[in-house]
Amino acid sequence: MRLVLTISLAMAVIPLPWLDEAPPPPATGPVFTGAALVRPEGYHTWPLVGASLGLSYAETPQGSGPGAFHRVYVNPSSYEAYGRTGTFPDGTMFILELYAAHEKTAPAKGGFFEGPRVGLEASVKDTRRFKSGWAYFGFENGARATATAFPEGRCHSCHVDHAARDSVFVQFYPTLRDP
Amino acid sequence: MRLVLTISLAMAVIPLPWLDEAPPPPATGPVFTGAALVRPEGYHTWPLVGASLGLSYAETPQGSGPGAFHRVYVNPSSYEAYGRTGTFPDGTMFILELYAAHEKTAPAKGGFFEGPRVGLEASVKDTRRFKSGWAYFGFENGARATATAFPEGRCHSCHVDHAARDSVFVQFYPTLRDP
Question: How high is the ipTM of this complex?
Answer without folding.
Answer: 0.82
